[in-house]
Amino acid sequence: MSGAFSAIGAFWTYVSTLLDPFCGPVGLFTLFGNGTLVTCGDTGWGDEIAFGVKVTISLALATLPVGLLIGFLIALAAQSEEKSLRLAAGVYTTIFRGLPELLTLFIVYYGIQMLLQSVAAYVGITGPVEINAFVAGMIALSVVFSSYSSEVLLSAFKAIPKGQYEAGHALGLSRGRTMVLVIIPQLVRIALPGMTNLWVILLKDTSYVSIIGLADIIRQTGIAARVSKEAFFFYSIACLLYLILALLSSIGIGFIDRWSRKSEASR
Predict the structure, then answer these.
(1) Dihedrals φ, ψ of 34, to 5°?
(2) Which of 102, 162, 181, 193 has the fewest CB atoms within 10 Å, i.e. is most exposed?
(3) What is the dihedral of CA 50, 236, 224, 214, to 10 degrees?
């Protein structure tokens, strides 16, 4: 059994290396960076920068669903008939839209560590408590992203006529099924332009996590710039990578936009 798992692991490693968009056989750095400072391997910084890109993409993709879920719940609370829920939603969005993203990151990273250390000391556990930088970055970016996405979703909710809810009720659908089958498809189409902007902002905001030691694009290119004394070259590489991610995101969102408009009547 262990031999089978080893074989699967070796095969997966081979496939990952083969399909690596940066250091694979037809990777970006392999084709255009050979013999330069971004050569993959021991002679260049290609592997380190490629790892930073993967961390940046992983952090953004991990943050997106969490931020969207919290933002969706905040948007529901903001239009609730319960006054306390509306007040709580307003306080939440005001705080996290007003605070700088970097300050929010520091509060989450250091604040959670202090909280966990206090709890550990209370139960008799001594020693330092550290929180994973990736988790801290995801939490901080999620609350910031959710505070902005909730406003976009709230505007989209208001753009959907109340007759849509009544139509779902007339068809015998429960409130939950009406939301899933009738409201959310329209919500996606209406909110998509605003969410596109927020996704691009989220990609850029991932650069803040380099401050707490996470090996993203900015941290990896920054280390390479300091060691090689070629700051302009490596920060230009970072600019190019962020622009490529933004371009690929625009293409992907274009597919989602076309899918969301399939239900529209032809004009």
Answers:
(1) -65, 125
(2) 162
(3) -60
What are the structure tokens assigned to 191, written together? 């909110």
* 3 alpha carbon, distance to own chain's centre: 37
Take residue 222 and report the two structure tokens written for it: 């920054």
Which helix (H) or strand (E) element contains residue 1?
A: none
Q: Where would I find the beta strands (DSSP E) of 66-184?
A: none
Residues 80, 119: contact at Cβ < 8 Å?
Answer: no
| Cα(126)–Cα(122) distance, integer angstroms | 9
DSSP symbols for 232-255: HHHHHHHHHHHHHHHHHHHHHHHH
Closest CA to 180 of 70, 72, 265: 72
Q: Which residue has the tokens 């307003």?
A: 90
Fill in the amino acid letter for 150: S
